[in-house]
Amino acid sequence: MHPHWNHTHEEAPEMSMSTTAEPAVLEYRLTAGDRCDSCGAQAYIAAEVNGSELLFCAHHGRKYEEKLRAVATTWHDETARLADAR
């Protein structure tokens, strides 16, 4: 049981979009096989630039984020998965 849940309930509370404070990523589409185009580490960020998908690890995605967002038509960020793994 999650430490912040109310222990008076026997089951975990139902989660819905209206009860979460942060927008939820419902689908993780990047896999361990997706690699950063800069260094080869596991990719957690995908950006589409000029019709091509570029993949970045969290480090390089953050390093180039400002410049990439200025030209990217899409930005897909799964770096929250890194915090979930702890």
General description of the model:
The protein is α+β, with helices and mostly antiparallel strands and 86 residues long. It has a domain at 32-84. 22% of the residues lie in helices and 16% in strands. Strand 1 (45-49) and strand 2 (52-56) form a beta hairpin. InterPro entries: DUF7455 (IPR055878). This is DUF7455 domain-containing protein. It comes from Microbacterium telephonicum.
Give the topology.
Layout: E1 45-49, E2 52-56, H1 58-71, E3 74-77, H2 80-84
Antiparallel strand pairs: 1-2, 1-3
Distance between the termini: 16 Å
Largest sheet features: 3 strands, antiparallel
The dominant shape is globular
Order of helices and strands: EEHEH
Mean pLDDT: 80
**SS strand fraction:** 15-25%
Structural class: alpha+beta
Q: In angstroms, what is the radius of gyration?
A: 17 Å
Helical segment count: 2
Counted beta strands: 3
The parts where pLDDT drops under 50 for at least 5 residues are: 1-18
Order of the strands making up the biggest sheet: 2-1-3
Observed structural traits:
three-stranded antiparallel beta sheet, 3 strands, disordered N terminus
Task: Give a nutshell description of this structure.
By secondary structure, the protein is an alpha+beta fold. The chain has two helices and three strands; from the N terminus they run ββαβα. Helices cover 22% and strands 16% of the residues.
